[in-house]
């Protein structure tokens, strides 16, 4: 496995102070520039191809989501990338001009130009060297840092198990470095080396990573997987606390049950993050104790854990006071009050589909988008295999469906990850850190 140590330019950039974000999705990296102010114009949906449906290939689907538009709630563009490789997650480069989208099966990464004309993204590069250069497979999280893309992966090329790591590419799409998630750490109760999400708190110089499972598990039929006791042991049960500037793991946290998405509170002065464990159906709080040590503890159940509702995605409010949680098996979208993050309280729930996965809210919290697909082999069968994108309005009391796009009826496939963009007149540059190597991907 090759690792470059020539990272000084972006490490210097990380030392500079960050600006406070004032708009956009709440899950984005704090290093993302050109943040949307107010109403988003477009929603991009990374979509899994289905054999015999349309062209059968994975694709980026763009939807007009501005209520002032004549095409509001309609698909306005589709970019097919060919083949099916388990399309999963996406992330913008730090300048927001390019959108990187990964596939968990073949580990290909597709780079789209969304800055020139966000209504019509253009595929400009396909990166195929992740396994060869890093040793990792299953690119999952695309997290922009100054001049670079930090990629969290789910598995490894050696045995397709859960031990994995992080890969660093520059904005041109060239490999820079890799960092293994620890399988052992002095003083750690246990360290499994599993990966999933990435979240950075710049003011604390802290990065958190969470854990899921390897290629052999996530490509297996869900029913067969859950009936296989040996396979069910191969899920991550930890989170790792890193020194971000040094990219050095400092502590392993015991968080049983596959902790997935990580969300830092964006409220100024807060020093905590929250995640949800899929298999144990709990919310976990990661916070410094009175000695400044990072600790993790489960603080609330999500539904009835005995029924394995399978929490899959979360979206925190911009003020850190509430959290949306989607649970796949029961098709519910739940809202938790985080006024006291050490004791979250569920205050609302609604069945939003027969199966639901991703949830993204606008910065003002008034719009909540939901998609349906988890993984091709984990989605439900028959009539319960709904594939959709839905927009709900939220007035503080009730989610009200505004429109729905049936991805099966439209011949598009399985709707998974979402990202917002805006017309050039709808964005405003935010003063951020000095950016090193802010190049566009090579064409």
UniProtKB/TrEMBL annotation:
Catalytically driven reaction(s): methanethiol + O2 + H2O = hydrogen sulfide + formaldehyde + H2O2 + H(+)
Organism superkingdom: Bacteria
Keyword GTP-binding set for record: no
Keyword Nucleotidyltransferase: no
Signal peptide, first to last residue: 1-23
Keywords, sorted A to Z: Signal
Enzyme Commission no: 1.8.3.4
Pfam families: SBP56
InterPro entries from the UniProt entry: Quino_amine_DH_bsu (IPR011044), Se-bd (IPR008826), WD40/YVTN_repeat-like_dom_sf (IPR015943)
GO molecular function: methanethiol oxidase activity; selenium binding
Enzyme class, first EC level, given as a word: oxidoreductase
Pathway where it operates: Organosulfur degradation
Homology family: Belongs to the selenium-binding protein family.
Protein name (record): Methanethiol oxidase
Species name: Pseudoduganella armeniaca
